[in-house]
Amino acid sequence: MKKLFLVLCCFCIALSACSSFTNEPTDIGTLPEVTCVAVLATALPAGSEESFSATQKKSLIEGASYYDSVLATELGDRPEFKVLTEYQLDAILSNPWGGRLQQVRDLGKATGCEAVLEVTLSRYRERVGTEMSIETAASTAFSMDLIGVTRGVVLWSSSFDETQKALFDDIFSFGKARNRGFRWMSVQELSRDGLLSRLQEFPYFQEVNVD
Asked: pLDDT for 138-151, tens place per residue?
């Protein structure tokens, strides 16, 4: 697990200069034809060993495991996606110092995919309270980057950053609140909602069923 954490941190550091944290999807240049996307195990932010408390890190690790389960459920049965587990990723990226481009190419070679999709989870906080009354709302934030294997550049990126608010605090969120049943969501529910909304925006496989 420590080896995988080091590999993912190195990969995140390499991507940080190219990724933007925004709630809107970003296309970078003309998108090439892609028939297969390797979906990486959910990563934690670079430097999270030092910048997060033990409790926050534990929550992030639990959240990453949940994110992986959602991605596996939604994409795992589709032949155009290759969903990689922690252990598969660890085996492919056996040399964390190989450089960003080499790592991406190794992933492409191992999976036969032209691009890789990385999800980086930076916040995962459970609500304190119940569906009807809370002290602290659930909160989560993540980014998604699609990286081309040939040149190692970011082809598309998006992100999600939400702490659930009461309807009277955000009068423009009536439709969202109605769809969520006018209740306080758990962090798993909020995370799944965010992941599925971003998959709907994914440029290559718009037919992905996220209902």
From this structure: 999 999 999 999 99
Instruction: Provide the residue ranges of all domains of the chain, joining segments of one domain with +.
Output: 2-200
- DSSP-assigned letters across all residues of the chain: -HHHHHHHHHHHHHHHTT----SS-EE-SSPPP-S-EEEPPPBPPTTHHHHS-HHHHHHHHHHHHHHHHHHHHHHTT-TTEEEPPHHHHHHHT--TTS-HHHHHHHHHHHHT-SEEEEEEEEEEE--EE-SS-EEE--EEEEEEEEEETTT--EEEEEEEEEE---GGG-GGGHHHHHHTTSSPPPHHHHHHHHHHHHHHT-SS-TT----
- Summarize the confidence of residues 164-186 as an average pLDDT: 75
Topology adopted by domain 2-200: Rossmann fold (3.40.50)
Whether residue 27 is predicted with pLDDT greater than 60 in this model: the reply is no
pLDDT at 181: 73
